Amino acid sequence: MKIVPVTANVSLTRDLDTGTEAQRAAVEAIIQQVKETGDEAVRAYTKQFDGADLLNLRVTNQELEGAYAEINDDLIQALREAITNIRDFHERQKRQSWMTTKEDGTILGQKITALDSVGVYVPGGKAAYPSSIMMNVIPAQVAGVNRIVMVSPAGADGKLPASVLVTASELGVKEIYKVGGAQAIAALAYGTDSIKPVDKITGPGNIYVALAKRAVFGKVDIDMIAGPSEIVVLADEKADPRFIAADLLSQAEHDEQASAVLVTTSKQLAEQVATEVERQLATLPKKAIAEASIRDYGVIYVAHDLVEAIDVVNQLAPEHLEILTEEPMNVIGKIRHAGAIFVGPYSSEPVGDYFAGPNHVLPTNGTARFSSPLNVDDFTKKSSIISYSKQALEENGHKISALARLEGLEAHARAIDIRLEDK
């Protein structure tokens, strides 16, 4: 890994991949075709891109039940414990509607309502991602969403991975479609004979899925357009270089464009970590991917002191931040920008990915400066409640009319004045 001194400006931000002109055109054509011919287009694209010739798009109860035979009991127990942890964490995020009254009879409040329906996209292809299901479905359930639809690309055999089906079943998700790619996003947004439209789409996917989500935003809501994964480790001379190297590589193996960064106050630790990364890379199954990530986007910053190191972290605003300093709890309050903060040597980033409870759908590409992890609020909407009494309007009506006329909106002012004439 490159070892460099801290410069004036550091950043993980890069231009998000908006695809080639050909990819954008392909996504637009897919969406239009799904809008026009519905299931026919979905089936055709599923056969073209996934090699699956599907008569029925929806997963049957028999398929859900049969998946359990392929998963061992220990793994099912681990899934259940992870689900419990994740649900418990998100239950603590729930907010209540509220109202307040004033002596003049005014009632003001906020009504919180769950979304009616949500579509969850689960990536497929080369790997299965049960954790993605848990992190998207559970906060929606906790929020009170009545209809949760899951879509995921089938293999050429027309099946979804057993681990995906078992996880969905454990969560109680029954409406599952063996559809992926831009055609799945289009179906969720506009609806087909088989798939009724939803109000919001969440979940990660490839460039075609990302472009499709971007294209349907406005017709439906979406969670985010995520960039490549990121990890920043903040460490002092007391940290274990083996732990740091392992955690950096845990993100580097995601993608050739993933960012793995160490910010440290120790030049000696920097050199030890660089050596350890090379040692651990040698036996990594996804060595080619991780090696490219470390080469192109991996860096070790050496700061003069902890104050400068913390400033670097806040500039980077990382998706994942690990604090491996002698007194990590003293550092947390100084961190302003990070999607998830992992504290201490035994809080490795995968703990949060799979089991601890907090959501692993996190802001990337520096957007932790202004956005948050996926959470229960993302699956609710808020309505303001305003009830003015006659007394309140009589006392304040002339002020409201004056403000309306200040903006040149006479009809607004008259809507108030006409009520004051009857006093």
Automatic annotation (TrEMBL):
Protein's organism: Halalkalibacter alkalisediminis
GO molecular function, one term: histidinol dehydrogenase activity
Cofactor note: Binds 1 zinc ion per subunit.
Gene: hisD
Pathway as given in its UniProt record: Amino-acid biosynthesis; L-histidine biosynthesis; L-histidine from 5-phospho-alpha-D-ribose 1-diphosphate: step 9/9
Protein name (database record): Histidinol dehydrogenase
Enzyme class: oxidoreductase
Family: Belongs to the histidinol dehydrogenase family.
EC number: 1.1.1.23
UniProt catalytic activity: L-histidinol + 2 NAD(+) + H2O = L-histidine + 2 NADH + 3 H(+)
